[in-house]
Amino acid sequence: MKTLKVDYIVAITSLSLLVALAWYYLFLMASHPSMDMEMMMDNKNPMTMSMDSMSDESMSMDSMSDDMGSMSMTKINESKSTINFFMMPMTGDWGVSDFIVMFVMWTIMMFAMMLPSTFIFLNIFRMMRTSMQTTTSPFIEMIVISFTYFLIWVIFSLLACSLQYVLHNNGLVDMMGTIQSNIIAGLVLIGAGAFQFTELKNVCLEKCRNPLSFLMAGPINGYRNVALVGMKHGLFCLGCCWVLMLLLFVNGVMNLLWVIAITATVLVEKMLPYEKLSSRFLGILLVGWGAYIIFI
């Protein structure tokens, strides 16, 4: 039993370190200028020097402007063909490399936001499994069940990034992933608030808050059953939180403070007592905020 408890501590410590690294990556990503902006800033001083030399040689302002524009666009286009996972592709339409960068960012962000809320579930799962004769390795089972969670959020990240891709290339969100229309942003908030009162929300939240009854609902024999349990519970977790994740578009996908606020909201909702009361209170706040944005 002591060894199993040590295994659990090792697993949770490792996952916590990964979460910390994920948050550090998000900090670097949010604080770093985009490729296009950095290229333009790098070109500023050389262009100024070029202007001085051109004026000395009595070249026209029109030709200087054309040369500057073509050189800037050439360097920006060259930067778009490279992939840098620490730079946000903010200006212009996204290409394939931009999509890849943002998909990685979404995946790491979901990992950082959602994994801490599973620690209680993992502890209950460990305690239940260590008391069973059929358990061979609770440590490996925790790894398997954690991987299923990660897989679900990778799929969600792909869908969310695809949505941002469409919104960005159609001018509906800005460089930071913020919805440009107050009406649309307000409707998203109202929709998220209304979702808090639905039966789907209640069922999913209950499974997240009370994982023991979920785990005891059926037999768990072997790693295949462990993965299946993880997938089912991960889907309940996704069903509980996916609308809240869409709120990232209200204040900006790359707004780190907003990401932290939503993460705290998810944790509080799963841990505070009186789940329906706390969930519906959040729903009222979101509906009120959305109405304020639309009508005020």
Q: How would you characterize the overall build of this protein?
A:
This protein has about 300 residues and is an all-alpha fold. It has a domain of about 200 residues. Helix content is about 80%, strand content about 0%. The longest helix is centred in the middle third of the chain and has 32 residues.
Helix and strand topology:
Layout: H1 2-31, H2 35-56, H3 61-80, H4 96-114, H5 119-130, H6 138-169, H7 182-195, H8 199-209, H9 211-215, H10 222-246, H11 248-251, H12 256-271, H13 275-295
The proportion of residues in beta strands is under 5%
Total number of strands = 0
**Helix proportion:** over 70%
- Report on the biggest sheet: none
Q: Please identify the structural class as seen in this structure.
A: mainly alpha
Q: What is the first-to-last residue Cα distance?
A: 60 Å
Number of H- or I-type helical stretches: 13
Order of helices and strands: HHHHHHHHHHHHH
Using the CA coordinates, give the radius of gyration: 24 Å
Which stretches of 5+ consecutive residues score pLDDT under 50?
A: 35-42, 44-61, 67-79
> What's the overall average pLDDT, rounded?
80
Shape: globular
Which features characterize this protein?
mainly alpha, 0% strand, 296 residues
Short description:
The chain is mainly α. It has a domain at 91-295.
